[in-house]
């Protein structure tokens, strides 16, 4: 399947006072019409042709429907010019591009009447798809004049086919095989007469947004003289069949532009159908996967690092301390924090020979909740001090202070306690 995105620009130029060109852009149908005829005729003819094409959108998904739309435009313009003297003799060129076929097997078809042009930009090359229906172009094709002579031929503006001319309209059709990142340029002769191929290639290679590229081409045509109305439609192939040759950098840049996705279902039915270019494939074409991968890996490592650091800190905090508490009638020492920390419960490391009856009653509430010590030896020392404190209070009941109470223990008056 193919997904397209179009952009356009149209300008009156620097010489004409009225813009008789009309353009049309949708998700699957694109067109440029260059009107001609005195008074309001030209602009009416081009607008009518575009309007009929737009109304025919439902049927231009086939080549027959596309041709029929141009035949209808021819008849309607002819009818309008016949019934209104002020529009007599009006006509218009038309170059239209329509996505034709099924989603699984579609192709961009260019339909052309007149000297507006369709170009295919692929791999840095710009190929004119349409053939000009002009006197000079026909003389060139016959070999009667050279390309240089055709470019300056006095009758180069005389066209040999148009919509609005009596008789059967003869529509040229061209299939354009699009690759991912290709561009198609539709334009009126106001561009092709003013801007050469090299300059067009430079613009198509460097300006990725189709609307901005179209505006830049119009600006260049005006800078080069702007002798005629200038209209440009640029169509980008955002999704298309892949070919073996790699897209140019410009193509890749084109794909990188965000775009409103046309409402085409990207699901192929089976593997027999043309290869679908999915999101990852398009990102790969853009060179994004490497960047994306590094970012994802970097983010993943950061998350892992934060989790590991958090885990290490919790473990360190939960196990780096000891506390003394009572268990039944016995004084015990645990490694850890009273009550535990998260998933880490305190671990019993020693049941001391000191019982709860061998310490002062005032020490027992603190022991029940647990007394923290920075190390196992400090915890043992604390228990030992408790026992000494108790034995001293028993053997020297008149002692007013205890010199064996460590600094970490709250100092209390033994004399007061045992009196
Ligand atoms: Mg023109």
TrEMBL record:
Keywords of this entry: Membrane, Transmembrane, Transmembrane helix
Domain PPM-type phosphatase: 5-237
Protein name, per record: Unannotated protein
Residue stretches spanning the membrane: 292-314
UniProt cross-references to NCBIfam families, sorted A to Z: Stp1_PP2C_phos
Pfam families in alphabetical order: PP2C_2
Single Gene Ontology MF annotation: protein serine/threonine phosphatase activity
SUPFAM superfamilies: PP2C-like (SSF81606)
Annotated organism of origin: freshwater metagenome
């Amino acid at each position: 399947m193919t997904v397209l995105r179009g952009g356009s620009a149209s300008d009156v130029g620097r010489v004409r006072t009225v813009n008789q060109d009309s353009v049309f852009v949708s998700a699957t149908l694109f067109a440029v019409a260059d009107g001609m005829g005195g008074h309001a005729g030209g602009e009416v003819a081009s607008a009518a042709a575009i309007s009929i094409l737009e109304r025919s959108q439902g049927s231009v998904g086939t080549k027959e429907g596309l041709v029929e739309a141009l035949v209808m435009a021819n008849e309607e313009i002819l009818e309008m010019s016949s019934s209104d003297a002020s529009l007599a003799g009006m006509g218009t060129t038309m170059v239209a591009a329509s996505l034709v076929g099924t989603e699984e097997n579609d192709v961009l078809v260019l339909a052309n009447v007149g000297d507006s042009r369709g170009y295919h930009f692929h791999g840095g090359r710009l190929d004119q798809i349409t053939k000009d229906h002009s006197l000079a172009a026909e003389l060139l094709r016959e070999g009667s004049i050279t390309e240089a002579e055709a470019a300056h031929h006095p009758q180069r503006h005389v066209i040999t086919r148009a919509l609005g001319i009596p008789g059967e309209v003869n529509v040229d059709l061209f299939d354009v095989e699009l690759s991912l990142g290709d561009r198609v340029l539709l334009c009126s002769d106001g561009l092709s007469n003013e801007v050469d191929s090299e300059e067009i290639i430079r613009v198509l290679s460097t300006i990725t947004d189709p609307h901005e590229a179209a505006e830049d081409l119009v600006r260049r045509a005006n800078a080069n003289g702007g002798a005629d109305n200038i209209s440009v439609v640029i169509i980008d192939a955002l999704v298309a069949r892949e070919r073996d040759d790699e897209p140019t950098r410009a193509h890749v840049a084109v794909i990188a532009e965000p775009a409103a996705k046309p409402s085409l279902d990207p699901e192929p039915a089976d593997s027999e159908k043309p290869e679908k270019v999915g999101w990852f494939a398009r990102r790969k074409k853009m060179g994004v996967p490497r960047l994306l991968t590094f970012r994802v890996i970097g983010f993943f490592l950061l998350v892992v690092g934060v989790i590991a650091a958090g885990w290490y800190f919790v473990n360190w905090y939960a196990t780096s301390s000891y506390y003394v508490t009572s268990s039944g009638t016995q004084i015990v020492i645990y490694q850890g924090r009273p009550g535990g920390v998260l998933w880490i419960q305190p671990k019993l490391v020693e049941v001391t020979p000191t019982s709860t009856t061998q310490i002062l009653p005032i020490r027992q509430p603190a022991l029940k909740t647990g007394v923290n010590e920075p190390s196992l030896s400090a915890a043992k020392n604390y228990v030992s001090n408790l026992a000494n404190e108790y034995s001293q209070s028993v053997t020297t009941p008149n002692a007013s202070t205890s010199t064996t109470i460590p600094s970490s223990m709250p100092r209390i008056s033994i004399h007061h306690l045992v009196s």
